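Re: the pair you flagged

First of the two:
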Amino acid sequence: MPLPRSVGIRRTAVPAALSAAHLLRAAACSSCSSSSSSSSTAAGGGAGATASAKECASIPAGPINVYNIIPLTGPTATSGELIESIAGVAADYFNAHGSICGHKIAVHNLDDKGDPATSLGIARQLVNSGDTIVMQDSFGAAEDLIHPYLMQHQVLIVNGNGAYSLYNAKQNPYSFSVGPSNQEYAEVMVNWAKSHGYNNVGILTDGSSFGNELTADTLAQMKADGLKLVKTVTYSPTSVVLTTPVEQLRQAGAQTVFATGFTDVLQIVQAIKQVGWSPHLVGWGNLAVFGVTAAQVPPGTVDSCDYRYTPGQPTSTLLTPTILGMLKAEAAKIGINTQTYGVIGQYIELQALAHAIEVAGSLNGPKMAAALDSTSNLPTVVPGLNLDFTATPTVHNGFPLADFTECTMQNGPYDIRYGAS
């Protein structure tokens, strides 16, 4: 479930301790031996286009290697550890359903400690080794540093981030996201508020590059929808107590709150309760990222969501055998919480990658990117959800806006929420 860049990613980066059952860590490649890493390879693979042996002849023998550059040690290690966990489960289930051009897929998790210099060193080693596929290219300052470098060297990136600065097609021709874009986050939040008569909006943001971009998108959408901005308050992403900025919005007369940053979500909801306030709180998905519950927020709070249950339909509509199997395997690692279903998004990333490789018949970055760039209506493991990278050709986010909505704080099986009405 996302991928915000300040301290973690959309729908997966969480400040929660993981279980001790992590994947075994081993060196991913000889050239990357200076970095701590972990690997996951399983038999079998993907749901991409069917490719002939001739089309796949240029793919080297052995597994197809893909890399996550993530913090597995250091102060932001919990974010990387969660990626490590869901990548392993997704790869196991992905490989169990077939192959990519007859090849297994191997996911390697390389530890950058959350340090930009270390992250850049790993990226250089991958480029020098001729590796061409990266999934998560770190977070925050490290991602800001290495993303342009990977683009310069034509490395394909496929993950779930929403930032235009990372996925605009002109500057980032080899970078793709299977998740919603920041513009889609803004549109869904603002349209929800307008359709329910919520106005007099206050914005809380953290000053991060992600927060600044989403705030700008939200303000543009508010102008288009005719919603009134009361005040924007920017807090420090290292803040421990946020009663002062929350109180500033309350005193300014805000009736609706958009929290457009990534950090300090729990502190925001705690501060709202502490000052005795009950605004209309509308999330872009960050409430789920941090495991916020209905008991912690004002009545009627909603949070945008990509995979959810539809009221009136059986939960089995979403919980297909493959998805249920993945969720059970992920729950065995981290428990059942609002982060468990991040494995669904990881699986979809692998499906998009398989499609790119099989259409291109190659592991060449530009060829794989060209295949995704022209892809529309690509089925995913989620029933009825098809990726479309041609709908907004200037932005490489494949999640269709029509499938994106707000969710109530009501959780169903595996803590997946229900679409709001």
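Second of the two:
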Amino acid sequence: MQTQQSELWHGTTILTVRKGGVVAIGGDGQVSIGQTIVKSNAKKVRRLGKGDVIGGFAGATADAFTLFERLESKLEQYPAQLTRACVELAKDWRTDRYLRRLEAMMIVADRERTLVLTGTGDVLEPEAGVMGIGSGGNYALAAAKALMDSALGAEEVARKAMAIAAEICVYTNTNIVLEALDSSK
């Protein structure tokens, strides 16, 4: 019986936290194939466009970079319109034969909104300012929700929640890359 690549590749936790006028997206650095860690310092979170959008991906790396490139192209076509750019990308992702086979999820954010994009055409805005994707996403999401009422800022909540996820999920490590945007700027 042949196993699909998505079942072999694990190792992503991406979390977004929006709190106090700041949005942060954090991602761990672990990439695993089966039971083997092949990389511990992968960068799954980055700035997009002219630096006014941040994004993180879960899934196959080449697929995610293809989607990031497509999103950057949409952001050039629809400047300062993150939702429109994401909806247009989701349409392409659903209808284009090549893109349809891509296995990834993305969280993207600008100063005003956060969106989760999936290959099924979903463009979702998370409730309560937090969302997690990937193998450790639910652990990080639960931890972040528990920390939202604390005095911690968005970046601190994201870092602490990612550290908690790394203690629980074997496909998540503590090598965190975090990007943030301040909505007051």
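Residues 21 and 183 are 5 Å apart (CA to CA).

-B.
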